[in-house]
C-alpha cells in the first residue's frame, strides 16, 4: 500500500512539474498573420479545455475525454505585418483566417515543443527522486543499489508520460467536443456565420483588429468543432421563459430573423398576476403575433389568478401563430414542427398559491402521461389537423435538409415538393421511423416547473423554466428568464444588504440536424438591459449528443419547411386528482 501511494504521489507530482515547466517556459507558435503563446494548465476549471483569451473576450472549447487532460492555454496575438494587410480596402474576415495547413503546422509544433517540455519536467523530477532515494540513508547504511532506487521513479515516469499523452490524445478530438463557450465580443462568433456576415457587410465601420480576433477564433472552431456540428441546422427552436409582462418581443423577433428560427417554445409565466389585462396593456399578444413563426406555450404559475382561471390560456388560443399545448384541462395538443413531435402540460398552480410545493406537479404530470399512454394504445380521443390554427403553416427558419435518400417533410409521411421520383420509399421509411419513435414518446416535452419535468418521462428532451436561471441535467433543460424576470421582479436584493442587482436575461436555441438529432444547445445570456447599459455576458454551445436521450430512430427526417400539424388528444378517463384545489 505504501509503495502504491508513493507511486501515485510521484506520478502526480512529476506531472504537475511538467505542466509547470510548460508555463515557465512557454511555447511560441505562429502563422503568417498570427502568433500564440501556449502553456499547459492544471487549474481544475481548465482541465480538458482549450482556453484562448483575447482582448475581446475568451474562447473556451471544452472536451469530455474519458480521463481529464491538462488544459491548453493559448494567448493569441497578431503579427506586426498585419498592419499593412489591414490597410487593404474591402478586407474580408475569410481572408484573415489562417489557412488549414498553417493551423496544422502550428498544432504539430505545439505538440512537439509543449510535449517535449512536459516530458523534460517529468524526467527531471523522476531523476531527482531516484538520486535522493539512492542516497537517502542513515550514516551506517550502504548506498542503495540503483536498480532499487530507480524502480518507482521509472514506473512513475512511464505512467506520467503515457497517461498524460493518452488522456490528451483521447480528449482533444473533434468527436469529444462537449461545448464551445465565449464571452465578450467573441461570443457572437459561435452564434453562427450571420455575425461574421454582418461584419463583412459593415466592413467600413468595423474595427480591423476586431475582425482579426473574430477570424482567429473562427479558425480555432473550424479546427476542433466536429463536422456534424458545423453543418447548418435543419430546424432551430428558440426557447424562452418567464416573460413576466415585459414586452421584449421586438428583440425576440430580431433573434427569430437573425438565427433563422423555425418555432418558439415558451415554458410559461407570460404575465405576473394572472390577468389578461396585464398582457393586453403590455402589448404581448401583438408582439407574439409579429414573430411570424409558431409559438408553443404552456401556462406557468403566474398565468392564472385562481385554480379555475383559464382566461389567459383561452386568450392565447385566439392569437394567430400560438399553439397552447394544454388548451383545456386534461385536453392536450401535440404539435409536429419541422418533423419534431412536441407536447406538454400547464402548471396547475396560480398566482398567490404558496402551498403544495413540488408535489402539486405530480398529478398534472401523471394525467398527461396517462393521456399519452392511452394515445399509444389507441384509446384516447384524437383529432388531426393539417396546420396550426392560424399559425404559420411553413416555418421560415432553419435550413431545409437536402432531399436525398433521407429527406421528406415531417412525420406525416407527405413528400415535399420537388422530391425525386423514388421519394415515396423515402417517405415510407421516414414515416415508419417517426411512428416507431412516437410509440416511445415525444421528441420534446414542455412544462413550467422543474418538478413537473422531473416527474415526466418518455421524451428525448424535457424543457422547463420557473427558476429564472439556466441549468442542465441529463436531457432536462432549465431555461432562464428572457426578460430578466420582467419589470416587477427584475431586481433582487444583494447579499448582506448590498444594493439591488438585476437578474440576467437568457434564451436558448436548440439546433436539430436533418436526422432530427440535436446538434447543439446554444445558451445566451446578457444583463443590465433595464438599467440602460446592456452588457453581453457569454454564449455557450453544448454538444447535443450529451443531452438528447433516447436518440431518434435512423431514417427520421426533420425539415424547417415541413408542414406543421396538430393532434388534439384527450384521455378517455382523465385523472381528476390533477385538478388543483384552493
TrEMBL record:
A Pfam family this chain is assigned to: Metallophos
Keywords, ordered alphabetically: Membrane, Transmembrane, Transmembrane helix
Domain Calcineurin-like phosphoesterase: 236-308
Record-annotated membrane-spanning stretches: 118-137, 149-169
CDD domains: MPP_superfamily (cd00838)
Keyword Flavoprotein appears in the UniProt entry: no
Composition bias, Low complexity: 404-425
Name used for this protein in its record: Metallophosphoesterase
Keyword Transmembrane: yes
Composition bias, Polar residues: 381-397
Region (Disordered): 378-425
Amino acid at each position: 500500500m505504501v509503495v502504491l501511494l508513493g507511486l501515485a504521489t510521484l506520478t502526480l507530482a512529476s506531472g504537475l512539474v511538467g505542466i509547470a515547466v510548460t508555463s515557465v517556459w512557454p511555447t511560441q507558435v505562429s502563422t503568417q498573420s498570427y502568433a500564440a503563446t501556449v502553456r499547459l494548465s492544471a487549474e481544475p476549471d481548465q482541465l480538458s479545455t482549450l482556453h484562448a483569451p483575447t482582448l475581446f473576450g475568451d474562447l473556451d472549447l471544452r472536451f469530455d475525454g474519458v480521463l481529464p487532460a491538462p488544459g491548453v492555454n493559448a494567448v493569441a496575438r497578431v503579427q506586426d505585418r498585419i498592419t499593412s494587410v489591414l490597410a487593404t480596402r474591402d478586407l474580408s474576415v475569410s481572408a484573415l483566417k489562417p489557412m488549414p495547413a498553417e493551423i496544422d503546422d502550428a498544432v504539430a509544433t505545439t505538440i512537439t515543443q509543449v510535449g517535449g517540455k512536459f516530458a523534460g519536467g517529468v524526467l527531471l523530477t523522476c531523476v531527482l527522486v531516484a538520486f535522493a532515494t539512492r542516497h537517502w540513508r542513515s550514516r551506517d547504511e550502504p548506498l542503495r543499489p540503483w536498480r532499487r532506487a530507480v524502480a518507482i521513479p521509472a514506473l512513475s515516469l512511464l505512467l506520467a508520460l503515457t497517461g498524460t499523452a493518452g488522456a490528451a490524445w483521447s480528449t482533444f478530438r473533434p468527436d469529444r467536443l462537449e461545448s464551445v463557450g465565449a464571452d465578450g465580443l467573441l461570443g457572437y462568433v459561435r452564434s453562427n456565420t450571420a455575425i461574421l456576415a454582418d461584419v463583412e457587410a459593415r466592413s467600413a465601420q468595423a474595427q480591423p483588429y476586431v475582425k482579426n480576433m473574430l477570424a482567429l477564433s473562427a479558425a480555432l472552431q473550424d479546427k476542433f468543432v466536429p463536422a456534424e456540428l458545423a453543418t447548418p441546422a435543419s430546424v432551430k427552436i428558440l426557447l424562452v421563459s418567464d416573460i413576466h409582462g415585459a414586452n421584449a418581443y421586438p428583440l425576440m423577433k430580431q433573434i427569430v430573423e437573425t438565427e433563422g428560427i423555425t418555432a418558439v417554445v415558451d415554458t410559461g409565466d407570460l404575465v405576473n398576476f394572472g390577468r389578461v389585462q396585464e398582457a393586453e396593456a403590455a402589448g404581448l399578444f401583438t408582439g407574439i403575433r409579429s414573430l411570424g413563426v409558431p409559438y408553443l406555450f404552456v401556462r406557468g404559475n403566474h398565468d392564472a389568478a385562481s385554480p379555475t382561471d383559464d382566461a389567459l390560456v383561452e386568450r392565447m388560443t385566439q392569437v394567430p401563430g400560438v399553439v397552447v399545448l394544454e388548451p383545456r384541462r386534461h385536453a392536450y395538443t401535440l404539435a409536429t414542427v419541422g418533423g419534431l413531435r412536441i407536447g406538454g402540460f400547464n402548471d396547475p398552480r396560480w398566482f398567490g398559491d404558496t402551498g403544495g410545493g413540488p408535489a402539486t406537479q405530480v398529478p398534472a404530470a401523471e394525467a398527461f402521461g396517462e393521456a399519452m399512454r392511452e394515445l399509444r394504445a389507441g384509446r384516447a380521443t384524437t383529432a388531426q389537423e393539417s396546420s396550426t390554427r392560424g399559425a404559420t403553416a411553413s416555418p421560415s427558419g432553419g435550413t431545409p435538409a437536402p432531399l436525398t435518400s433521407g429527406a421528406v417533410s415531417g412525420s406525416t409521411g407527405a413528400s415535399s415538393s420537388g422530391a425525386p421520383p423514388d421519394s415515396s420509399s423515402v417517405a415510407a421509411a421516414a414515416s415508419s421511423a417517426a411512428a416507431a419513435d412516437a410509440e416511445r414518446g415525444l421528441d420534446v416535452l414542455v412544462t413550467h416547473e422543474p418538478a413537473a419535468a422531473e416527474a415526466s418521462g418518455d421524451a428525448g428532451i424535457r424543457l422547463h423554466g420557473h427558476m429564472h436561471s439556466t441549468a442542465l441535467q441529463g436531457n432536462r433543460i432549465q431555461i432562464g428568464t428572457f426578460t430578466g424576470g420582467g419589470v416587477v421582479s427584475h431586481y433582487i436584493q444583494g447579499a448582506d444588504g448590498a444594493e439591488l442587482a438585476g437578474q440576467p436575461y437568457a434564451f436558448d436555441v436548440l439546433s436539430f440536424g436533418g436526422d432530427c438529432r440535436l446538434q447543439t444547445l446554444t445558451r445566451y445570456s446578457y444583463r443590465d438591459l433595464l438599467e440602460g447599459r446592456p452588457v453581453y455576458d457569454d454564449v455557450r454551445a453544448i454538444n447535443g449528443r450529451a443531452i438528447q436521450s433516447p436518440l431518434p430512430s435512423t431514417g427520421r427526417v426533420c425539415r424547417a419547411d415541413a408542414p406543421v400539424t396538430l393532434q388534439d388528444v384527450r384521455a378517455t378517463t382523465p385523472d381528476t386528482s390533477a385538478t388543483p384545489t384552493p
